[in-house]
Amino acid sequence: MNKLIALIKNKPILSSLVLIILANVFTELPLRNYLSNFMSYQAALMISIFALQMSCFGFLVYLSHKLNIYDSFNMNLSKPVKNLWIELPFALLILINVIGGIKLEYIINNPLTFILYVFAFLSTGFFEEILFRGILFNLINNKFGSNNKGFYFSLFISSFIFGSCHITHLLDGTMPLLNFLNQMFYASVIGVLFTALYLRCNTLLVPILIHGLIDITGCTEFLSITSKELYFQSLIHSPITYKTIVGNLIIFLPLLIWGIFLLRKNVPSRQNISSEITI
For labelling, which of 112, 127, 135, 276 has a CA lying 20 to 30 Å from the CA of 63? Predict the structure, then answer.
């Protein structure tokens, strides 16, 4: 076990990529198909998302303890939470999602399904944030982040990997190339912003909750999935237009600059000679 931990720390990018692949394979296990024998497909889908992602979260917490990085997450709020004002743009995005996506009528008529939906997509925040900000960013930054160059390398490579994780949809043909490039760009920017939330607020709990709330308010199409056929149909993405891409550039480029600006205080002041950056 000690040799494996040493290997992970010495090769953080390669080790993290392997971990991400294994985690994605695990969370895509068709548990929903088995559970649908005992309940509605909709309930089975929500419970399977929650169970698989929180199982991964539990393992990642254990792994982070072994890697001696768990304390930097400040999950028990042993250190004071700072700079909560930087959450405001995310609060606005969540509010827009609520106004445009969640219908009060559905919540009233299907309260149990909605509760399952909330837990399912809140678990995405726990799973993805500990994986990408908690483990991936910290491992890379611990190895290379002793100076300016290393810190920004850690920031951008971890955010790029986060943004590229939906490449499986490109490879299986459910997402056109243009859609993937568009999603990779804005998800990478969001990765930078979540890293800023984590470091400036001094706890991983803030990006976990913000990530979960964005997914809860932005993935409401899952509330209409009532069969296996509808689930697979939901995975197929219609081609986007160049107008959409230009719109995202206008929105997310300023957000990228803002995220980098927020992180200026976290850049190491010591200009050490870093080790060669290798995978």
Answer: 276
